[in-house]
Model the fold of this input.
Amino acid sequence: MKWNNWLVLMLAFTAHAAPPVPGTGQKLSPIGDDFEDPKWTFVHNLPKSSEEQDHNVRRPTGYSHSTRSQFISEGASRIIESEHRGAPDTVERVETPAGGIPGSKGALKLQTLHSGVPGVPSGKQMQDDLMVNNTMNGQPQRFSARQNPGIVVRVFVPPFDQWKPESSSSFGFRIDANRENVNERSRRGRQKEDKDRQYWPGFFMVQNYDQVNQRNVPQVLFRAGQNGFDVPGPELKQPGWYTLGMSFTGDGMVHYFMKQGVGDLTAGDHQKSLMPYGNKNEFITQMFFNVTNADGKTWSAPWVIDDPSMYLNSR
Done:
């Protein structure tokens, strides 16, 4: 075979190679939590932050406390409030719902009432954020897409009659990513600040109104497609446990995996591979969770998560 033909075949194979499965490779033990410590608590430090709405970061922000915190660094916490939006009103260790990870005794309940600016109801849907600390050896970390990082979490989807009745987003699992916009790079060089190149791919659990059958349909959306719009995913046929994961590769793509239950993800659970907003992902930092609410009078749906984890899968 001639060299040029061999090269073309190799490039074609590489372009269509299966993405790494989230949950495989080296687990970064200092990042994430299994919520097994019966003394696990979350200190809210109210009022919560609302930088996105009114540019007000109310420090000190909320943080988790457990006997495992020492494994990150002195005084650091595994789960922290977002300065950008503020933590859900309920961040509580609960008994793992039935069907969870075998042997798991504890999981984390997330629910919110007063999203947005504290004490200023807006009547609009807003989201509260809870971050998984990415600190290792006392320093915040970022992970290159060339390292093939992956993130995984188990999510307990509450009964559908506990969701808000309006068609809207209820929960999100996302990641802080940094992008290389090819058009901007050619026009302006590499001088843009990292914070201006951030974006947040991930999953949303939503309700969309089916006008034909006149009912709300619980569904997964993937953020986001090439054009920046969310990409429809599977309908959620029933509540209960699901496993969600994302992996990231050096070609800038984001790969979305999902399955019902709490088993390890496999290549067969691959749902989509996207380049959100048409931007090539360069590295990731923190994973986080959204819980949304609007009216400030009734609580959001009660979501439960377990064992958020991060992996490197260099190959």
